Structures are given as structure tokens and as C-alpha cells.
């Protein structure tokens, strides 16, 4: 601890860790984020996840705060994080549309012996502006995002504004109960059915989703007279979630084959369907009820956002697939982030059991705006602020 530079020392810089330094950091972060796995499995996961389509070729960047006077592998790792590049679409109030990228910050960490000395703050103060131009040869970056697990104040004080962070929680359907006619679903008279979605279905659906989101972002910008944007759920981003899921399940359920069902779509012609993409997420051991293991709907699309009995049946049908899959994989609940008023009204018509949770501590969607103005929720509109964008 002696000779540690003060957090405001001019010698402290943002740098990229070496392979050895990344391993050193992961060995420490395992206590925070590797609780569902052995240390070896956690290290294997982190290495695996940096070499998949979303992350390879600069899709992920690792950052450290360190002392510039010391050489790599002999310098202190005073704090660390990573940023994941994701595509975006931005519309201005005049209807102009721009494609770009965002960098989602994750795994912000300071080793226990260096905590409360201002190092993470210093790292983030350097990182915020650096991300505005990071990889600018690829595309403009209108904002960076992060999902705080330490409440609403820390990152807000550093310039990442808090955005809506709620979810609907629905109980899983245990494997033994039958679909649609039990105490969890209410007595549904639904005729609607849903078809499970597998990996091959996603590229085409996600292309259609890009068109939908582009229209929605543009309409929102014109209607609200505010810059409006969405992070795009492209194939690589969705695959990132599913490869992570497959890795975790292979360790937690070594005798079971990986699930092939990762979504569900209702009946109906294109333009009238409701569909979801989901993922099983494990933060801690299966036996730990407080670990936060959950079944997440990564993306929910209501192609024709109208409150009708038909849409309510379609929504119930796709959500039931999620509830059943959650039960199959020992998860207690299904979470759907930041749903629209229409979705809540539709759910109200289904008779299904659900509650809305306003998160105060974890996964607080936070955004640093690089354009004009403050870029808080009163000034810009974040369309589809859903779990798929989490990092
Ligand atoms: C969060 C973390 C990166 C902060 O690192 P740090 O270098 O100690 O941070 P700084 O010295 O810049 O700032 C200290 C302040 O951080 C805030 N902070 C730290 N941990 C916090 C927590 N769990 N909840 C809320 N605020 C927290 C406090 O405001 C603290 O000020 P205090 O000393 O008055 O309590 C570090 O505690 C850590 O690695 N924690 C474990 C991993 C983690 O939770 N990361 C955040 C993921 S979003």
C-alpha cells in the first residue's frame, strides 16, 4: 500500500491490460461475478467470451487505471472495466437518421485493497470522454451506457444519467403443471398459440426488428421533438447472450443438452405478431435464492401496438413459453424490462399474474450523452431500453 499514487496524480492513465493483467483482474472479480462457477470455469468463461463474434476484432475493449511510469505486468491495476461496442440508430427531431455505435461499460472494479481512494472515479472520469471518440473510424458514438449495480448515485455523479429501470416479473411455470390452465396463468380461454424460436430464426427477425426500430425512433424524435435513439439488437449481440448462457448451462447442468428454444412468436401475419427472445441468466449457485438468477426476456416486440383481445392472447401465448422454459431450468421468475403502457394493458386483459418492479440498486440503465445538452431522460428518448443491451 505504500507508494500508491494519489487518485489525482498526473501519472495515472487509462491503459489496456495485457493478457496476464486481464487474468489477474478476473481472478479478483471472480468473487463478485463468478459465484455460480469455480474459479477455473470463470476464467475460462471470460477468455471464451472475448473471442466470439460480438467481441473479437475490437468488439470488447479492456481498460485499466494504472501508473504510466511503470511497465506492463509490473504496474498496479488500480481499477478496471471493459466496454462492449454495440450498433445504434439515432434520429433527430427533423427526421434525420444516423447509424452509429455505443460503448457499453461493464465490470467496473477496484481491488479491495485500493478501494475508497478515488481510483474507480478517476478511471471513469477519464473513460467517459475517451469513449466519445473510441474507435471513431468505425462509427460515431453519440452516447455511452452502463448498468449500475451500486444504485443510482455513483455513476450519475460522474455524468451517466439514470434512465427508467423497471421490469415486469412473472412467475415461472413449474415443469409439472400444465400450460394455460393452472393457478399461475389464471383460467385462460386463449386460443392463441406460440411457436418456439431457435437460433436460425433470429437473423431474419432481427432484420425486421431493425426496420421497426428505425421507424419507431424516427416517429418518436418527430413527435417529441427530442433526439431519440435505440441500441440495436443485432445478431451478434443476441448471440453474445446465448453463448454466455450456453457456457453457464454447460457448467451448471453438465448432463443436460443446451436448450434450443430461445424465443417464441405468436400466430399472425408479419406486422401483427408478438415475439420475444429470451435467455437464462445465472449469477450464483442454483441453491442460492438471493443470487438473482433469472429468466430474462431480452427483447419483446409487439409489431402492431394496439390494445385488443387478440394481442392480449398473443402476448399471453409467447410469455407462457418463457414461463415454462424458466421452470424447466430451475428459474423462479421471468423478467421483462421497461415495457410500454400498451403491454401492461394487454397483460391486464390476460388474467396472468405479474408485478412491476422498480429497481433501485441493480441494473440501473445509465447514459452519458455526447451531443448537445445534458442528455437526461427529459431531453432524449431511449427507445427499446431492454435487457438485450445490458452488458
Ligand atoms: C464500486 C467500486 C468499483 C468503487 O471503487 P473505488 O475505487 O473504491 O471507488 P471510489 O474510491 O472512486 O469511490 C468510493 C465511493 O464509491 C461508492 N461506492 C462503492 N461501492 C458502492 C456500493 N456497493 N454501493 C454504492 N456506492 C458504492 C461510495 O460512494 C464510495 O464513497 P464512500 O467512501 O463515501 O462510501 C468498488 O467498490 C468495487 O470494485 N466493488 C465491487 C464490484 C462492483 O460492485 N462494481 C460495480 C459494478 S456496477
From TrEMBL:
Question: Which Pfam families does the UniProt record give?
Answer: GNAT_LYC1-like
Superkingdom in the source lineage: Eukaryota
The LYC1 C-terminal domain is annotated at 185-391
Sorted alphabetically, which InterPro entries does this protein's record hold? Acyl_CoA_acyltransferase, GNAT_LYC1-like, LAT
- Which SUPFAM superfamilies does its entry note? Acyl-CoA N-acyltransferases (Nat)
Q: Membrane-spanning residues where?
A: none
| Name of the protein | LYC1 C-terminal domain-containing protein
Q: Which organism is it from?
A: Glarea lozoyensis (strain ATCC 20868 / MF5171)
